[in-house]
Write a structure and sequence with these properties.
This protein is mostly helical. The chain is built from 10 helices and no strands.
Length: 140
């Protein structure tokens, strides 16, 4: 007889009459969450999609850079930095720049001296071309 009653019931009509808010008010959500395996739930989340939705400008605006910098141990950072290599690199760069400047000034002085010698000799043809090197291979 119970089977006959169950078969004759319209479950959709019965569910439509249930107040779900009243039912959910009686549910202890903490107990439901305690029963869930959150690692399993997180495993189904597409983190790339979540990160794509993040407004990086808003996120970075909330970052306290001063707090981050205050946590940096400068002494350890300096101790672990190869200052010798940095000094060699920067001084070799400075030396290269100094040599380049010296060469540039030497060429300029050479041009100036050539003009003076030309004037002294009263040679108004200008500066002579550099001498040709003997046995120089011709470019194809």
């Amino acid at each position: 007889m119970i089977d006959l009653v169950v078969e004759s019931l319209d479950l959709n009509a019965l569910i439509a009459q249930i107040d779900l808010n009243a039912v959910l008010a009686r549910v202890d959500l903490n107990e439901v969450v305690d029963r869930m395996d959150l690692n399993e739930v997180v495993a189904h989340i597409d983190l790339d999609e979540v990160v794509a939705r993040v407004d990086m400008n808003k996120l970075l605006a909330r970052v306290d850079i001063n707090q981050i910098v205050s946590r940096i141990d400068v002494e350890t950072l300096v101790k672990n930095t190869d200052l010798g290599a940095i000094m060699v690199s920067s001084s070799s760069t400075l030396a290269t720049e100094a040599v380049d400047q010296g060469r540039s000034h030497a060429v300029s002085m050479d041009d100036t001296l050539a003009r003076w010698v030309s004037r002294i000799r009263r040679n108004h043809t200008g500066r002579a071309e550099p001498p040709e090197l003997p046995n120089t291979p011709e470019e194809p």
